[in-house]
Every structure is written in structure tokens, then in C-alpha cells.
Amino acid sequence: MLQHRNVDQQLIPEILLALPAWTDRDSLEQITNQAVARLRRGRRNIANSLGWLQNAEVRLDDWIRTDVAEYLDDPGFPEKRRVGIVQSLHRFNRWVLAYQRFFNMLRPYLLRIEQQQGRAARILELASGSGEFSLALAKIAQHAGMSLSVTGSDYFVEHVNSCKNKALKQNLNVEFKQLNAFDLSGLPEHSYDLVFVAQSMHHFTPGQVAMMVHQSMRVAQTGFMGVDGQRSLSLFTIVPSAGVLMRSTDFIHDAWITLRKFYTESELAMIAQIAAPKAQVIARRSTLPGYSILTVMHPENNA
Ligand SMILES: C[S@@+](CC[C@H](N)C(=O)[O-])C[C@H]1O[C@@H](n2cnc3c(N)ncnc32)[C@H](O)[C@@H]1O
Fold it and tell me: Which of 70, 90, 235, 244 has the fewest CB atoms within 10 Å distance of its CB?
């Protein structure tokens, strides 16, 4: 529920066909924001002509959606509490075995890069927050006998500093740097194989996701993978209950907004098609429930 696959299949081709060409980062951002707004408006416009269930689903989805900012995105929010939220998210990630699951999603690409290139795959994680996935990835790969070069990054310097300390304490060779996910212009072309981002796309506007995907395709030789919670009603029971168990009102606040902001898989696919028209784009749900996965691969490098 809340994915609107049938409705979007009708609407998206028309929207993409009518889209003006974008020429720079600003126009990409603007055009993508407009395209997603048009898709959501289109759903509302045809809702009455759908069956009652689909009509109700579109209206409920519209009512749920919000533009309210999460504490994590508020630059004025106290640094210590912001670090506390990403640490709570880390505990939640461990409960739901998120890191092993993210690794499983990446594994075929990492193995293929290692085989084809004859060297360690180079992965850049954007918006890595607590940095725990980057650290876990290095450990899991080590156990699996894979050679991997991992770099984590985040916009907020307090996260980056805390991650550098963790890597040092755990004696792990994982680099952390401060990066704005929408501005990767400081990174050389093909300086990584894969760019990965977890549980962060909903923090960004459609235009910002497009800028991130577009620039990742320049920076990454193989492509981009983004994982986020799946837009669905079931998560509305699970995630806040986890917040209560963790006794973190800040986490509950952000988790509740997060659920309302997740993109649908067809929205993610459309955004990526606009940002990287020549790439192979797939947006799907994960094998075990809970996540949507967006892969955007250079055509010759798909796993
Ligand atoms: C919900 S957290 C996800 C953290 C981590 N990926 C995880 O799954 O546990 C979202 C992260 O996005 C980061 N962020 C927000 N805006 C960003 C930007 N423009 N560039 C890079 N990171 C950003 C935040 O600092 C935060 O760490």
C-alpha cells in the first residue's frame, strides 16, 4: 500500500516526455521538483476515476505526506542531540540487521568490481551519519575475505569527527570526510566504483536527490545505490514502537516525520531517469520487507 504502481505507470511516461531538457545543476533541480509535483498532482486528479480502494490510498497518502523538517536537518538543533539521534538510529539498524542487509544488496556489485578490476572495490557512502555502516562494511568484507576500500562522509562535521574517532579506536582503515551529497564537484571523475546512501533520500527534495544521483554517476565508475525505508503503512507501527523502546523522544520525532516523507519506488525511478537518462535504473523493494532500493548503473557495469 502507498506505492501507487498502477497509477504511476500511466502517468510517468507522459511526464517524462513533456519534460524540458535540463542544462545545469539548477535546472536539473527545478525540473525534477516540478516532475514529482506533477506526478503527485496527477494522482490526485485521476483518483476519483479509480476504484474506491485506490482512490482512498491516493488520498490517504496525500494526507500523510509532509514537508516538515526533521531535527537532524535543522542546523540550529544542538549538535549533541543530533549525534544522539544518529546513535539511536544505529541501535535500530542493529535490531533490524540493516548492515548485513545493506551489505547483501551491495555484494554482487562489489564482487564483480573486484573480479573485473583485479583490485579492491572503492565505495563512498554519503550521509553516513553515525558511520556505523561504513565501519560494519569494512568488518563484514574482511570476514568474507573481500578487499574493499571504504570512505564514509556526512554534511555535519560533528558526525565526521565522531566517525573518525570510532575508526581510530577500532583500528579500522575507513576514511571519513565532510561532504555535501548535492555537491561532489571536489571529487575527481571515477574516483570511486560505487556511491552508496542509506536511509537519507527522504531527507532530500526530489531535485536534491537528482543532483546527488547525477554527480554520483560522474564520481563512480560503476554506479549509485540508494536504500531507504519503503513507503508503506506497516512501518507506521514498527518504527515508533522501536523509538519508545529506545526512550528517545528526539528519535521518535524524526522517525515519525521520516515515515511520512519516504519516496515511492516509482518516484525514485523517475528522479533517477531524469538525473541520469543513459543509466540503467531500477527501483524495487528489498527481498526482506522494509526497504526500497534504487540502483542507477552505467550500462556496461550492471551486476
Ligand atoms: C537519517 S540519517 C542516516 C544516517 C546513516 N546513513 C544511517 O543509515 O544510519 C541522515 C543523514 O543525512 C545527513 N545529511 C543531511 N543533509 C546532508 C547533505 N546535504 N549531505 C550529506 N549528508 C547530509 C545527516 O547529517 C544524517 O547523518
Answer: 244
Contact present, 137 and 112 (Cβ < 8 Å)? no
Question: What residues does each domain of the chain span?
Answer: 69-301
Output the residue whose Cα is nearest ligand 1's atom 16.
155
Closest by Cα among 30, 12, 14 to 22: 30
Distances (CA, A) of 140 to 107, 116, 161, 278: 11, 21, 23, 33
Report the DSSP beta bridge partners of residue 293: 227, 284
* pTM of the entire predicted model: 0.95
Instruction: Give residue-wise pLDDT tens across range 101-131.
Output: 999 999 999 999 999 999 999 999 999 999 9
Check if 159 has its Cβ closer than 6 Å to any atom of ligand 1.
yes
Instruction: Say which CATH superfamily domain 69-301 falls into.
Output: Vaccinia Virus protein VP39 (3.40.50.150)
